[in-house]
Amino acid sequence: MSEDKVKTVDKIFIANSTIDGAGVKLNRIFGSHLSSKITDPFLLLDNFGSENPEEYLAGFPWHPHRGIETVTYMIQGKAYHEDSEGNKGIILPNDLQWMTAGSGIFHQEMPKPISIDDPEEKLRVVGNPKGLKGFQLWINLPASRKMTNPTYRSIVQKDTPVVENGEGSKVKIISGNYMKTEGPFQGGYGLNPAYMDVKMEPESEFSYIPEKGHTSIIYGVEGKATTGGTQRVQLKEGMAAVMSREGERISIITGYTNFRFLLMTGKPLNEDIYWYGPIVMNTEDEIKEALLDLQNNKFVRQKNPIFQ
């Protein structure tokens, strides 16, 4: 495939250190009304964690969500999840929860270090047992599905395929399709999102052809690389590159170092949004309705979320 069909970088976001929840140290890569016009349908991406439990144990206590999906992916440590209806779960390293908040979820997410006294958890230790590292991605829901039934999907390591491309890259496919292999989550209310964790060796190449017109984002987790094509841009840890709509394929090339990155693609909604903290709707009246529901203890419309 010719170089002129390789996508270029349209926008770079650099992670900013901040504190969220009840005091969790994290890096926010993007997450504002302004940035959402560029990253649509993706609203927010956080890289949270620390080697020091004191910087994350306070967690993300009770808070609401409406009108979005949250995708929580752990690569070190674990996170407990509980909602207001008594549903509970745990996300271990290399596992993921894909939650559709839809009409309303009230929940908490509490990160913890891996327990080395638990035989199963001990097998899942990555690096420092007291360390924590994970990502949370928010995906907008189309106006027609904002008030859909809340849904939980637990995606565990053993059900998530890893494909080697023969050019030095290992691709964990959470959602979407790569080299004729599908990830365990397919759907996304017409957005057809792809979400992959890619590990590249030194002097290797990775190519991917997203669906035409889709937003494509590369987020550097570890190491560095460059984009391919005639307009090369260096990619590194803590940097997100939004790729151009023009061109056909994404090309990433490593030099003398490894590079690990998250790949996210999805169909942009091109809809107006009103954003109030963890609630993202399409009109100001819908935000007012959500806040009134919170005040009147009517926020959770569906008491029995769907589990898939």
From TrEMBL:
Residues 24-139 form the Pirin N-terminal domain. Belongs to the pirin family. InterPro entries: Pirin, Pirin_C_dom, Pirin_N_dom, RmlC-like_jellyroll, RmlC_Cupin_sf. It comes from Oxyplasma meridianum. Residues 195-299 form the Pirin C-terminal domain. The lineage of its organism: Archaea, Methanobacteriati, Thermoplasmatota, Thermoplasmata, Thermoplasmatales. This is Pirin family protein. Coiled coil: none annotated.
